[in-house]
Amino acid sequence: MKVIAFLGSPRKGGNTDLLLKEAVRGIEDSGLSVDVFHLNDMDIRPCQDCGGCDDTGECIEHDDMDGVYEAIRTADRIILASPIFFFALSAQAKIMIDRCQSFWCEKYVLKKPLPKGEFDRRGLLILVGGMKKEVGPQCSESCARAFFRTVSVPEHFTLSFLDINAKAEILKHQTAMQDAYEAGKKLVKD
Ligand SMILES: Cc1cc2nc3c(=O)[nH]c(=O)nc-3n(C[C@H](O)[C@H](O)[C@H](O)COP(=O)(O)O)c2cc1C
Fold first, then answer.
1. Phi, psi (rounded to 5 degrees) for 154
2. pTM score, whole prediction
């Protein structure tokens, strides 16, 4: 089973990073490895809406998305982890998602969804926000859902934490680390 993860936070050792690491630990304890893409460190240009993928389902821009396309195409499990910025996913996450327009064309225009593979395709969304307002997770959930469905992940579940602001503050949360560990295990179960 191939598992990939996207870290959308720029803050190394921050809340999203710590949660994702715990989810990865749960997966590794299940005997699998995870390819983690640190989006903030990658060279990914925003989608230019050039129409270059309209007829082919392939992006004409070549940068670090080349590796991401291949990873998404062959993954059985996909984790998207992002802090909430301005009631939405981080720009790092959103830039990668927008470049998945080529998968959108492949699936909905060319009618070629990515194959289910041996293990189906499933996703996990991890969110952390500093405010108590639900609107951040709600907006982020809508965008993440569009991403997952576009890359032919028909099912995902979400782990979301609010009111967590300072770097590594998530470590003080009573259940968060255990929740993330269990979420990793659940994602790759059966
Ligand atoms: C640019 C920016 C915008 C933010 N906007 C929101 C927001 O709209 N809603 C929210 O709940 N938290 C917001 N926050 C707070 C972060 O979501 C919070 O600090 C989170 O714990 C950061 O996670 P990290 O440590 O993984 O980077 C914002 C933080 C930054 C830097």
1. -75, -15
2. 0.98
